[in-house]
Structure formats: C-alpha cells, structure tokens
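Q: How would the structure tokens look for this protein?
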Amino acid sequence: MKKKARTPYVDAAAFRLRLLTWYDEHARDLPWRLRPGGKILPDPYRVWLSEIMLQQTRVAAVIEHYQEFLRRFPTVEKLAAARESSVLASWSGLGYYRRARMLHAAAKVIVKNLGGKFPHTADGWRDLPGIGRYTAAAIASIAFGEAVAVVDGNVERVLQRVVGEHLGQPGLWECAEHLLDRGRPGDFNQAMMELGATICAPRAPACLTCPIIDFCATRGELHAPARRLQQRKREIHYALAYRAQNHRDGAVRLVRRPQNARLMAGMWELPEIACPTNDIKPAFTVRHSITTTDYSVQIWKLLPGRGLAGEWVGEKRLGRIPLTGLARKILRKAGFIAGPNGGAQAVAIAQSPRNRGIPSGSQRYLASSNLSG
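A: Here is the predicted structure in token form.
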C-alpha cells in the first residue's frame, strides 16, 4: 500500500533560501545553462534537447553529443526538416533511440502546427510526442519560468531523505510543489537535481557538505530492500570487412536492421557471425553493456567476398548514417571514424610520407595481418 501524500515538516522558505544560495555558488557550468539568478531565460530549444538527452544518460556523455547535435541542427526548423536517418546518425552513441525519433516528431509538430513557437506551459509541452510529466515541467520552469515542480530520480532521492520515508509518486510531487520557490522555479528545480547528482548521491551521500542537512530527517542513506539485478554475460562475434573502392575511399560491410525491429530499428551494424573455428585470433575485443547484459564482443577482420550479409558502405558515409552504439564503438576503435577528440591521430597517420595516397581506411585495416580468409 502506498504512503499517503503529505508535505515535509520543514521551513519551506528557509529550505529554498539555503538551497538556492548553494546553487548560485556551486552550479556546474553546462552548455545548456545560463548563470543562476539571471533575468534572461535560456533558449527553450537547447533546454528541451538537453532534457531529452539527459534521460538515462550521464552528463559527461551528453555534453559531447549535445554540441555536435546543435552544430548539425541549430534550430527546431532545421531539426524538423532533417531526415530521420540524419537525426539518428547524430544521436548514435547515446542509446535509447526512441528519444531521437520522438524529438524529431515533436519538432515537426512545433514547426507545422505551432508555427515554430514553443509551448510556454507544462501542459502545452505534454501535448507533444515523447514528453512526459517530468520533462514538460523541467522545460516549462527552466525556459519559461512557469512555477511547476519536477520529480526525477535525483529529486526523488532528496525528497525521500528529507522526509525520512519512502513515498509514492503522489507524495513526491506534492512535496516538490510544497517546497518549490515560485519566484525562481527553474533555478530551484535545477538546484534540486544538482543536489541529488553531486551531493545527495545514491550511495555514500556527502552529508557534511550538504546545504540542507539541517532539514534532513535521515542525514544519510534511506535504507530500502536491496533489488540488485544479476548481470548476465554473453560473448558475441562480428565481422569487420573492408574493401578498397578507389584511391581515396574504401567501404565497410554493414547490415541495416529492419524498420520494424523492436530495438534500434533502421540502424546500421556490423554483420554478426558465428565464432570462427580456425586458429586465427580476433583482431580486438570491446566491452559493451545493454541493461542487464554485459557483452564481450570479438571482432574478426575478414577478407571481402566471404558472403557476408549486408552491403558495402563507403568510408566517407560512416559518420553520416545512423550506427548502433556498438557499431560506432567498433569502427572508432578500428580507426574508421574519429573518436571524441577528433581524428588527429588518423590524420597524422594518413599524412605520413609512407602512407600518402593510400586510402585512410585501408591503412588502419591492413595494419593488422590477422585476416581470416
């Protein structure tokens, strides 16, 4: 039976003051934020994009993709006009690709039905594809100053520790609304999320540095029954086949997932194969995790003409097509696409005297001799 919703027994005004004073001084410098306490509200497009990207994704991973996504789609109009494949290609590596599809769908609604104007209220945002209660409240409060509270995983943890009880969703939202600073709702909501992300951590919270410790009923972890899921381990094998096409470019063998696939529909990946039975060792191994499964991924460099599924995709296209996160990880390690810091190393290899005029992909691919014929 869920706990009945109730408000915390704290001085809400003092709580707000203490929290916002801390946030004004310690807020992280993130590319979608403006300085706390300012009179100018942030760009709603950037706030919306950041909120969608941050769902179930670490801030550090989001920052890299956020900047590149904005470079390719700087406005909602550019996003709405883009092909879905281009949007998915820019999203590749963040996972949970339904978010990208819903973002794209919502952009089309905003441009076509709303004349390119963003909703100003949480209720208006909830009418758009892929926008739930938390996301709508976060965007409306941060980008438009609407006095509406948010509850995400971080806020939930803070509230439950302050109250000292495990509350259901009605109680959590009621507590959040009770504490909300209606003069600075966007900053308050971000401060609550920031506190949960940096101080009131899931394990070993830094209570001695917490600005609201005097209001906290638990001053530490609120114990709950352990529900740790057992991680499964699995080994899988993929083929990495390359062929030269001309003096400047080559192609990699890729398979496109069906458009009606339950996961990662329409995205490109390397051909999956059975484990080779010869004595050749794999070219390299990568680790990859999806929810409760940890994968050991063995990569085998195969010669062209092995009857692999899929089609040849030009090396220059690899950065423009929607790759699965695992495919991107493999191709990045193999040197076919640039890493997070760009392709400086690949450029240096290609420009060395002994390699000038050789296709860049083949330089890296042929660097290893363990090709399985």
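The CA atoms of residues 146 and 372 lie 61 Å apart.

The radius of gyration is 25 Å.

Upvote if useful.
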